[in-house]
Design goal:
alpha/beta; Rossmann fold; six-stranded mixed beta sheet; 5 helices
């Protein structure tokens, strides 16, 4: 292994050698003049160390990674029918969401039973190889309980609706109640939990 100390400058190294040579000769001279019959004392053995029971080094506690839940409304829809697909603008937003979060290595994707939420996460599912889990849009509290119990290191992304996203965010501890307007599609809410903290830190981004 290479030394971590820098090599001394040559004048210092030469001076050290000049000092060392007479010292070695003196040591040899003293050794030859001593009585050869005098036995060399045996080295003193190092004291033994007894490890008591239970003295083993404890296993270090694994590092906590924290976890995050990302919640957003579905992207723009084609029309006002009961279960429309995304419009061209909605598909473009879905692509932006995929570009925004694919590199974060999501561990789970969740949408409702409606096409517009599943299509919002479809590009991200394609890029990550994840399957979109479907949950009933009306079951906000059961979903919130499920998300609150996600494992350490999880990064979950949820696509919901204008009338479910606010309830889901606040139920998970993301601050005061709020509303999302019918023409708002860009708001993205990130709830970050530090290790075992019950209350998350809320950050809001835009997918515009």
């Amino acid at each position: 292994m290479a030394s971590s100390f820098p090599e001394p400058a040559r004048p210092l190294r030469d001076n050290f050698r000049a000092w060392l040579a007479p010292a070695v000769l003196l040591a040899v001279a003293c050794s030859s003049s001593s009585d050869p019959t005098t036995p060399t004392p045996a080295p003193t053995p190092a004291p033994s160390v007894t490890v008591e029971d239970g003295g083993a080094t404890p296993t270090p506690t694994p590092t906590c990674l924290g976890r995050s839940v990302v919640i957003t409304r579905h992207a723009e829809k084609q029309d006002a029918t009961s279960d429309p697909s995304l419009s061209a603008a909605g598909r473009a937003r879905a692509d932006r969401l995929a570009a925004l979060f694919a590199e974060r290595s999501p561990t789970r994707l969740v949408a409702t039973e409606y096409k517009r939420t599943q299509e919002t996460l479809a590009p991200l599912a394609k890029r990550t190889g994840l399957t979109v889990d479907v949950r009933d849009a009306a079951d906000v509290k059961p979903l919130a309980k499920e998300l609150a119990a996600t494992a350490d290191g999880s990064f979950v992304i949820v696509a919901g609706h204008s009338n479910t996203v606010p309830d889901l965010v606040t139920t998970l501890g993301g601050g005061k109640a709020f509303t999302i307007a019918e023409d708002e599609y860009s708001r993205v809410f990130i709830l970050a939990y530090r290790c075992d903290d019950a209350k998350p830190t809320l950050t809001e981004l835009s997918s515009d």
